[in-house]
Design goal:
This protein is of the alpha/beta class. The protein is built from 11 helices and 12 strands. The two termini are 20 Å apart. The mean pLDDT is 96. The structure holds pyridoxal-5'-phosphate. Pyridoxal-5'-phosphate (PLP) binds at residues 68-70, 73, 100, 102, 148, 152, 177, 179-180, 200, 211, 325.
Length: 383
């Protein structure tokens, strides 16, 4: 199988598994226990915290481990909104139309059920938000805004470097979902004035079910979870020691290899994209330049997206129609709708990763060409 769905999830790197193994067996103590077994596990957690902090250029105390990106997004968006409303009555929220559901639905829920007001800023066909339009949505009572670093479906990079400092100057807290960007695009939370940031380890060759909420210690927050008071009281619950150790090891791995890996991925991506674009009726969704180096998302005329995906799968290529988190849904994704992607086309996302080779992308491009032709010959349906 040629796996081109690294935006959905990535394989666990063998070096990450090796780092985790002791914490699945020998070092099984509870990291909150005072005895030696607990403290051995605690050392693993604290080392991981340092690895993540170094990767992001922030103090280790700002790093809070969670169960993944969804929890980190919810904890930031809801937790900051609740805290700001309680401290100074701020009850307005701003985000964009192309955020992941973990942000968009959290904000919509706050608006529908908790009396917050919400502005969702649109994006044009480029899939990149206009900084001026985003900043124009800010109000004197804005509690928290959320702008993703990179989109999960079309890979577009958002102008955090411009928006972040301006939001900070307005005294508003900025959350960013950096789940897709981490390890693949530069991130500078401190320089950009980011108050909260979400990561997910399984998107960067770490284990599933563990993530990071980067939260400045000056950021007001109410906790989603109440319990033992771990992680500054922001995220109670027994530490997932092995998962956290894997998250730290993976963060170190991807940041230490980014300088070679990003141009390599971009080369593979461009090689494949150029081949796909030679097929008549195929066009790229979203901006080509302001884009993650490993992301292709194409619109294909005369083919049903699900049918094309099944045909590719049968031919041995794993791709995606959009966000894996909503696979099974047949209506066009909110991201493709937001960028005005043609509704009568099929849409396919290919995302490369550490394990992708040149052969993989050239073979996958040939198989794509073949599948599109077969489907079109059959009137667009899978046969
Ligand atoms: C941009 C983005 N945010 C959040 C998430 C959710 O992360 P997790 O799978 O760790 O809950 C994903 C996963 O697809 C994502 O792509």
């Amino acid at each position: 199988m040629i796996y081109l769905d690294h935006a959905a999830t990535t394989p666990l790197d063998p070096s990450v598994l090796a780092a985790m193994e002791p914490f699945l067996q020998a070092d099984y103590g509870n990291p909150s226990s005072a005895h030696a077994a607990g403290q051995a596990a605690r050392r693993g957690v604290e080392r991981a915290r340092e690895q993540v902090a170094t990767a992001l250029g922030v103090p280790p105390l700002d790093v809070i481990f969670t169960s993944g990106g969804t929890e980190a997004d919810n904890a930031a968006v809801k937790g900051i909104a609740w805290a700001r409303r309680e401290s100074d009555g701020a009850s307005h929220l701003v985000t964009t139309a192309i955020e992941h559901h973990a942000v968009l639905e959290a904000m919509e829920w706050l608006a529908e059920h908790q009396g917050f007001s919400l502005d969702v800023v649109p994006v044009g066909p480029s899939g990149v938000v206009d900084p001026e339009q985003f900043l124009a949505a800010l109000r004197h009572d804005t509690a928290v805004v959320s702008l993703m670093a990179a989109n999960n479906e079309i890979g577009t990079l958002q102008p955090l470097d411009v928006v972040g400092p301006a939001v900070r100057d307005c005294g508003v807290i900025l959350h960013t979902d950096a789940v897709q960007a981490f390890g693949r695009a530069p991130l500078d939370p401190q320089e950009w004035g980011v108050g909260a940031l979400a990561l997910s380890a399984h998107k960067f060759n770490g284990p599933k079910g563990v993530g990071v909420l980067l939260l400045g210690r000056d950021i007001p927050v109410q906790s989603l979870l109440h319990g033992g008071g771990q992680e500054r009281g922001v995220r109670s619950g027994t530490f997932n020691a092995a998962g956290i150790v894997g998250c730290g090891a993976a963060a170190e791995l991807v940041t230490s290899t980014m300088a070679e890996e990003v141009p390599r991925l971009r080369g593979l991506r461009d090689r494949m994209l150029d081949r796909l674009l030679t097929v008549q009726g195929v066009s790229l969704n979203g901006d080509r330049e302001r884009r993650l180096p490993h992301n292709i998302n194409v619109a294909v005329a005369g083919c049903d997206g699900e049918a094309l995906l099944l045909a590719l799968d049968a031919a041995g290529v794993a791709a995606s129609t959009g966000s894996a988190c909503q696979s099974g849904a047949t209506e066009p994704s909110h991201v493709l709708s937001a960028v005005g992607a043609p509704v009568d086309h099929g849409h396919v996302r290919f995302t490369m990763g550490r394990t992708t080779s040149e052969d993989d992308v050239t073979t996958a491009a040939d198989l794509f060409t073949h599948c599109v032709k077969r489907l079109r010959d059959a009137g667009g349906a899978f046969v």
